[in-house]
Amino acid sequence: MLPNSVESSDVITGVDAFNSRYGEMEKALSCLANASRQNLLRGEHSEILEELVWTIKSWWGVQGVKKEVKGITVDGLLRSEWNRQLFSAGVECLIDGEDFAIERVNALVQEIRNLGWLRREWSLASKVLHWLLPWRIPVYDSFVKRSLGLSLDGDPKQAYSRIVQWEFDVARRLLAVDERWLGEIEPRSPFRAIDKYLWWRGGGDNDTAAIVRDPWRVIRRLELEAR
Fold it and tell me: What gap in Å lies between CA 173 and CA 84, rounded to an integer?
């Protein structure tokens, strides 16, 4: 595992490099995630939520996920309780938040299976919840595991538990010093910044993800306000 002595300057380097390449995609995806929250609060299965799931899958390389999974994932999301407090941002979200993150992602993984998709979609579930709850949910990803020295073939729940513990520890320590390492692009959350750093360090610096030339296309098609 990476030592907790990772410094804010290390994260800043990764975040700046990531944002310089994928910043516009981040802004568009943040806009889509913000719009999706209203549907969750109303308990509505919507095209916006489906597009959020599929955009995350398509842009960030979640392998083996077929089209029917986007609707199943939305139905799985709607089986959990949602309220405005969950979407709050601030250091208070880091107080004893590890169990919430692990249980919430595990619940969505299980709901997707209960609804008929037999694979355990830890990567997709964590990434969708990460974008909806960026102050609460770290990402499960092969590059993240590689950065942290975790087996790529180990038990996903155990690996995710270790990812969560490490990221919460680092987030608490670095936020006690400053917030510069969060970067300038929304969502400015500790887990978004740490994910960028770990993803970049784990192999993302090798042009792994394609740059979407017009990331705002989905926002225009859904007639959402670009912000």
Answer: 27
Answer yes or no: are the C-beta atoms of 52 and 131 closer than 8 Å.
Answer: yes
Average pLDDT (89-93) is 93
Burial class (CB in 10 A: 0-12, 13-18, 19+), 152: exposed
Read off the pLDDT of residues 146-188 as tens digits, 9 standing for 90 and up: 999 999 888 999 999 999 999 999 999 999 999 999 999 999 9
Those residues whose C-beta lies under 8 Å from the C-beta of residue 63, and which sit 6 or more positions away, are: none
Number of H helices, E strands in the chain: 9, 0
pLDDT for 206: 83
From the list 36, 225, 223, 12, the residue with the least C-alpha distance to 131 is 36
For 133-189, where are the alpha helices, taking DSSP H only? Answer: 142-147, 156-175
C-alpha distances (whole Å) from 158 to each of 106, 124, 145 are 11, 17, 11
Q: Is the peptide bond before 3 cis (omega within 30 degrees of 0)?
A: no
**Where on the phi/psi map is residue 207: left (φ > 0), alpha (ψ -120 to 50), or beta?**
left
Domain ranges of the chain: 8-221
Structure tokens at 4: 């907790």
